[in-house]
Amino acid sequence: MSADKVQALVNYYAREGQSRHIQTVCNEVLRKRPNDPQLIFWHAYGLILEGSFSEALRELNSAPVDDDSRLAVLAGMIQAHQSAKIVDDEAVVELQGRLEVEEGTANVGAVVQLATLYWHTGLLERGRGLLERCLRSHPDALDAQCV
């Protein structure tokens, strides 16, 4: 299955709130592409939606990170920490600082992935701001235009 089809399925299931289906799709494709950072991230996002915050954090901490998934992994870790019963405020502040620094130097793929995560988590204005900033500097970025 192509990366675009997998992302479309993940987007659909995330929009519908079907966390188990997100995990299933990612697990199926991870059998063929075991170290795909974006699939591992979306699998962990499914765990966050399900309420398995510590498992999601373990997965995100040990996941291989590429340029396109780096920002989304940081934002996912922030969401998992903030959603847990006992919030690790120190870790949240550190991760937010890293996210702010890396947002400024991120490539188009990373910004699109982060904006997609924000879309699913309901932070629409923050995602829109990222995409608008991205499109000002890269007006021909099709991925950013599509989100």
The percent range for helix content is over 70%
Highest-level CATH class of one domain:
Mainly Alpha
In CATH, the homologous superfamily of one domain goes by the name: Tetratricopeptide repeat domain
Order of helical and strand elements: HHHHHHHHH
Uncertain runs are none
Secondary-structure blueprint:
Blueprint: H1 3-16, H2 19-32, H3 37-50, H4 53-62, H5 70-83, H6 89-103, H7 108-121, H8 124-137, H9 142-146
Helix pairs in contact: 1-2, 2-3, 3-4, 3-5, 4-5, 5-6, 5-7, 7-8
Question: How does this structure look, described?
Answer:
This protein has 147 residues and is mainly alpha-helical. It has a domain at 3-104: Serine Threonine Protein Phosphatase 5, Tetratricopeptide repeat (Alpha Horseshoe). 78% of the residues lie in helices and 0% in strands. It is built from nine helices and no strands. The longest helix has 15 residues, at 89-103. The mean pLDDT is 89.
Keywords:
9 helices; 147 residues; mainly alpha; Serine Threonine Protein Phosphatase 5, Tetratricopeptide repeat
Structure in a nutshell:
This protein is mainly alpha-helical. 78% of the residues lie in helices and 0% in strands. It is globular and about 35 Å long.
